[in-house]
Amino acid sequence: MLHRLTLPGRVTTTTAECFALGTDASPYSLTPHTVVSPVSEAEVQATLAAAAVHRVPVTFRAAGTSLSGQASTDAALIKISHAEPAWKELVIAPDGGSVRLGPAVIGGAANAALAPLGRKIGPDPSSIDSAMIGGIVANNSSGMCCGVASNAYHTIRSARIILADGTLLDTGSDASRAAFLTSHAKLAQGLVDLAREVQADTALAARIASKFSIKCTTGYSLNALVDADPNDPVDIVLKLMVGSEGTLGFISSVELATVVEHPHSATAFVTFDATAAAAEATQALRALGDRAPDAVELMDAVSLASAAHSSDIASVATLPNLDLNPRAAALLLEVKAPTAGDLEAACAALAAEPLFEPALGDKLGFAQSAAEAKIMWDARKGIIPIVGARRPPGTSTIIEDVAVPVSALAPLTDDLSALFASLGYPDACIVGHALEGNLHLIFNQGFATPADVDAFRTLLDRMAELVAVKYDGSLKAEHGTGRNMAPYVEMEWGPRATSLMWRIKELFDPAGLLNPGVILSHDAEIHVKHLKATPSVDPVVDACIECGFCESNCPSRNTALTPRQRIALARKLSTLEDGSAAHAEASALLDSAAIDLCAADGMCQAKCPVSINTGEYMVALRAARLASGSPWASKLALIVADNFGVATAAGRGMLAVAHAAASLVGSASLTTVSAGLNTISGSLIPIWHEALPSPPLPVSWRGAQSQPAGAASRRRVAYFPTCVSRVLGPSQRGELCVVDAVQRLFDEHLVDSYELVIPDNVDGLCCGCAFESKGLSSATDAASARLGDALAALDVDAVVVDASPCVETMRRLGAGGVPVYDVVEYLDLAARSGHFPALSELAPQPAAEPVVLHIPCSASKVAGLERVYQSVAARLWGERGVVGSDVACCGMAGDRGLRFPELRASALASLTARAPARGVSCSRTCEVGLEAETGAPWHHVVVALAERLCK
Fold first, then answer.
1. Pairing between β-strand 11-12 and β-strand 34-36 as defined by DSSP bridges
2. Residues 297, 267: contact at Cβ < 8 Å?
3. What single DSSP character describes residue 594?
4. Mean per-residue pLDDT for 231-239?
5. How many domains, the chain?
6. Beta 396-403 vs 438-445: how paired, if at all?
7. Does some domain include residue 247?
8. Among 7-11, 484-488, 559-563, where is mean pLDDT lowest?
9. 713, 801, 788: which is closest to 751 by C-alpha?
10. 172: buried, middle or exposed (CB in 10 Å: 19+, 13-18, 0-12)?
11. 661 in a domain, yes or no?
12. Cα 250 from Cα 167, distance rounded (Å)
């Protein structure tokens, strides 16, 4: 229905794709019948209006890191895209005191933009580098440091809100406010009446204030009825939208007040012999008031043991009797200060507190190193997926989220540990933001049998009684009520307050179409229905809990499935009957939107707390598909690897022919023709783009070897010109190609210290990278071995390589036992050792506009290489003359970005919008893709060096 009425081309109704797009981090699995991807407020309004007419329930989704089922639906899902400019608004007030953000802005990106001003947004969930602002506000997320005072509720200033009937309310606009009061007089008056009613009931008002003095996201933000001006219904609307989980409307833009982010910080890891002792220490820390640490994170013995498998925290490894003491625990402390002196004083004052003496026996030591702090925080922030990765096969990881006054934290931890033990959950662990009395309870649960579901229900019942009744705490502190705690809202709040919530829902959404079953539900069993199955599909990805941390790094996220969606679809496929229509549909989607369009760059692994490389899994599926459907492909690839010189010559020849054809028929016509051939060939033939350069002359024709001068003291170095540098020439005629640039730098500046040699028959050599990502393992091994033999025969001290993908591949697969260096890395080493004074003494010459430096995904995997390129670029153009691309992967993936240009466009959408004037990188294929999408010239950094330093 919706696809006919609203957004043709941006509506998905196929079951397999809807299932994949509907995946989130919760233990629930519902498949939407429609997924709508609007690109503007007007399209959201139209969709909601159509849904209202046809009585179609609607759920909103941003990043989908949701843990409580608030982003799951079997109706219509409105999914906000990573790429659409309308949802990526980021406007900082001149004084940095506030920031206006679109719902698809990732929290970490907002903080990165605010960092130069010494500010950040208040909410700081552990998922901040993945979670989007829409979800952060809709769930009233908090996190490590923000507590209650700096959460979204207390920092929101204004918002643009689309109501259930499609009406847009801009709370920051006087005209919009006035129009709302006229068009929605019943809603406005109803809210005024509720506020006056609550404020007149002093006992109820005090109860609400007490509940929100600690973290609480159970139910609606009833504090809006206490805090807001009872005569200002728009203010009440604004505050109620925070934490409403898409049940009252859609937030299309929000203005948040920012908070100070001090530049200096220190971290300490303190161990205790009992969880209760750590909790008691937290109470003492909170009593310090302004002298308390900014963050106090608690980790119990089970979480510490899990973290020890994934980190190198010294304190974890040395924790006394960790395996023998199930009550052991630790606190992770962070202190922040405006100056180094203030930080030193704050740390010294904390170290002198007597509360640490039983735990340490000596002085409390704070680490000020960013590297040490990162290790500790990565272990804490990643504990949920880390624990999930160790779960028994076929089970799901559940994360409950509770809060109590800090005075009750110690007895609560004891009671929760006893509860888990009594119900048979030996792997359950307790972590949390202890300074706020906020605990996350992580346990693994199967749902394969009715007995499993009953066990889950029993645990939730007992936990709810313990937290809500015994300790009068919050059943959901910061993760949102969702469908997970909807049946327990009245247990926590009581009938009077719960009836207020139902009245609020009725005022905003009388038809009950916005996210039904979330926050409030008449179904007492909703929390144990539609539970997610997690069958094993492959050891590489079985540890995935579908948290979505990986998605922001995925180059195909705007055009195909993301890593977690690929995994979820593969799991679903394994449960479908082979030969069925559902199986065929899911299999076809996995082929086209996962296996084909995965860049296999492994950047998902960089964001995954348990280092899952979904690209590795996709490559394995490519290999399996080739083996079953194209058994000749592996043999053909092996022939190509054995005759790579012919392939290189053919590549240069085809590129030359293509350029000749483009000059005759026009570049646009050639693009059209090649696109047709691409379709006919099943995407095997690349699509022409005018950014593709002419081929350079073959290396051997230029007499490319730098001949020895006979000086015995010179270091003998092999230069391996990669196949991409041998096939792809410079962007413009008259410019240096990469191979020429390397040789001229060595010949003019390093000839006294280095003897540069090039392997014989270099055109016939390949590192194997060209075959590996295609799943052609035999050809990969053959090419790598042949190159290794050629390099070993040269008797050299090192080999330098001019493309970062090949550097990464050669270091991983081996290169005849010869140390492998990126060429710029080696030149930088030469400068630091005094052999390349022209580089070490280079005076920066800033360009008219900042030069964009793109670090390819392969370079980011080579230790230290990113730092080297940043350093050398700064020597060329100055620190302020270089900016990063902020792109994890360009989407070229060898030739894949030419065969599937939508992958390249998806990966570079954010950079294209910035319209850079000039860019540099360290891989010729990446540079071609970057030039194709941005229209700006891109070069290898070594070319820029040669242009500056050579005659």
1. antiparallel
2. no
3. I
4. 96
5. 4
6. antiparallel
7. no
8. 7-11
9. 713
10. middle
11. yes
12. 10
Residue 313's pLDDT is 55
Tell me how far apart the alpha carbons of residues 889 and 242 are, in angstroms, rounded to a whole number.
34
pLDDT digit string (tens) for 182-194?
999 999 999 999 9
Number of H helices, E strands in the chain: 42, 24
User: Residue 367 gets which letter from DSSP?
Assistant: B
Report the amino acid identity of residue 344.
E
**Pair of tokens at residue 940:** 């290898």
Count CB neighbours of 780 within 10 A.
Answer: 24
Q: CA separation (Å) from 125 to 65, 117, 211, 402, 783?
A: 11, 21, 21, 15, 46
396 in Cβ contact with 545 (< 8 Å): yes
Does residue 603 belong to any structural domain of this protein?
yes
DSSP annotation of 591 reads: I
Which letter, b or e, does each residue of 43-68 get, where b requires 16 or more Cβ atoms within 10 Å of its Cβ? bbbbbbbbbbeeebbbbbbbbbbbbb
Looking at every residue in the chain, the average pLDDT score rounds to 90
Mean pLDDT of 159-178: 97
Alpha helices in 2-118 (DSSP H): 2-5, 15-21, 41-54, 107-114
Q: Which of the listed residues 823, 855, 879 is the one where a domain comes to its end? A: 823
Quote the CA–CA distance of 812 and 827 in Å, as a whole number. 22
Tokens coding 872: 């050398």
From the list 919, 925, 941, the residue with the least C-alpha distance to 725 is 925
Rounded Cα–Cα distance for residues 64 and 855 (Å) = 28
The pTM (predicted TM-score) of the whole model is: 0.91
In this predicted model, which residue has the larger pLDDT, 741 or 704? Answer: 741
Residue 338 CA to residue 333 CA, distance in Å, equals 17
The domain of 703 spans 644-823
| Dist CA 897 CA 907 (whole Å) | 10
For residue 385, give the CATH number of its domain. Answer: 3.40.462.40
**pLDDT tens column, 75-90:** 999 998 766 788 999 9
Say if residue 566 is in the same domain as residue 619: yes
- Is residue 357's pLDDT more than 80? no
Evaluate whether residue 190 is within a structural domain.
no
Residue from 239, 252, 255 nearest 99 by CA? 255
For the record, the structure tokens of 184 come out as 């929605």
What separation in angstroms does the CA of 384 have from each of 338, 387, 388, 396, 610? 32, 5, 6, 12, 10
CA distance 866 to 859: 6
CA distance 557 to 503: 39
Q: Which residues contact 801 (CB under 8 A, 6 or more apart)?
A: 720, 722, 767, 807, 810, 820, 821, 822, 823
Distance CA 509, CA 931 (A): 49
Res 3 pLDDT > 70: no
Q: What is the 3-state secondary structure (H, E, C) of 450-475?
A: HHHHHHHHHHHHHHHHHHHHHCCCEC
Owner of token pair 């130069």: 116
Alpha-carbon dihedral 792, 794, 799, 804, rounded to 10 degrees: -70
603 and 548 belong to one structural domain: yes
Cβ distance 31 to 76 under 8 Å? no
pLDDT value at 360 more than 50: no
Q: Which helix (H) or strand (E) holds 586?
A: helix 581-590
Burial 637-669 (b: 16+ CB within 10 A, else e): bbebbeebbebbbebbeebeebbebbeeeebee
Query: In this model, does residue 807 exceed pLDDT 60?
Result: yes
Mean pLDDT of 799-809: 94
Q: Specify the amino acid at residue 680.
A: I
Q: What is the CATH classification number for the domain harbouring 720?
A: 3.40.50.1860
Residue 866 predicted with pLDDT over 50:
yes
Residue 363: which pLDDT band, with cuts at 50, 70 and 90?
low
Are 697 and 757 part of one and the same domain? yes
Q: Are 757 and 798 in contact (CB under 8 A)?
A: no
Dihedral angle computed from the Cα positions of residues 204, 208, 213 and 218, in that order, rounded to the nearest 10 degrees: 150
